[in-house]
Amino acid sequence: MPQNLAQISLAVFALIILLFLQGFGVLGPVIDGSRLAANFAIRPAAAVLEKTRDFTVAFFSVHSLVSQNEILTNKVHSLSAELAEAEQAREENRILREALGFQGETKLNLTPAQVISYDYLNFDQKAILNRGRDDGLAVGDNVVISPGILVGIITDVSGKTSEMELITSSNMAVNGRTTDGNATGIVRGEHGLGLLLDQVSQTESLKKGDKIVTSGLGGKFINNFFVGTVVEIRSGSSELFQTASIIPAADFRNLEIVFVVKR
């Protein structure tokens, strides 16, 4: 107990002396030195803490940006899909409106059909339609799209489906003429790549830009169906017949709705 009392007394005495010295400003340099030493010791730690804070803020900022970017990307994908669906629906509506208008205007006996299979890489150029014998279709029926563009002919029929050979097939030969009647010839398919007009007499007038339609000769194809437009005269004046390249009027890679002309 006496030892503890002595320690307490010593501490009180030291405190009184420190207060006395503080009152006379003697401890000022000591305090300043302690503060500078503490600041010098703390500064590296403060710099490390500041860098750590900046890194933490940057990390969470990047994480937030990544999350926002992912949300925006998903929204863009969703809007793109909706836009594609809307454009597809608009195109389908346009095709149906044109088809209905053509069907209402013409006096031909038409059966609408959908192309359910189409291999445009096949040189034979054949497509499968979702209409067949049960719908009154027969081999030899012409196939057109609005407004009266020839695309092919029925070559095989079953109960529910039928096979159509396109006019771009190498097996096809269609009697054709220019719309002004100044030239006639045979329209042939070029292995699915386009059309060729040949067997045109040198005495007849054939030029670039002429519109070619079916002539009805031979009875295989109905008269006055549009086939395509002359884009190049291939033959020279010294040859026996004129030959020309034709750009087809139909887009054969995007056929959807067609009409079978029942005789």
From TrEMBL:
Q: GO CC annotations?
A: plasma membrane
Q: Which UniProt keywords apply?
A: Cell shape, Coiled coil
Domain (Rod shape-determining protein MreC beta-barrel core) spans: 115-262
Q: Which residues form a coiled coil?
A: 69-99
Answer whether the UniProt record assigns the keyword Coiled coil to this protein: yes
Q: What InterPro entries does the record point to?
A: Cell/Rod_1 (IPR042177), Cell/Rod_MreC_2 (IPR042175), MreC (IPR007221), MreC_beta-barrel_core (IPR055342)
The GO annotation for biological process reads: regulation of cell shape
Among Gene3D superfamilies, the record links this protein to: Rod shape-determining protein MreC, domain 1 (2.40.10.340), Rod shape-determining protein MreC, domain 2 (2.40.10.350)
Q: Name one Pfam family in it.
A: MreC
Q: Which family does it belong to?
A: Belongs to the MreC family.
Q: What is this protein called?
A: Cell shape-determining protein MreC
Q: Which organism is it from?
A: Candidatus Doudnabacteria bacterium RIFCSPHIGHO2_01_FULL_46_14
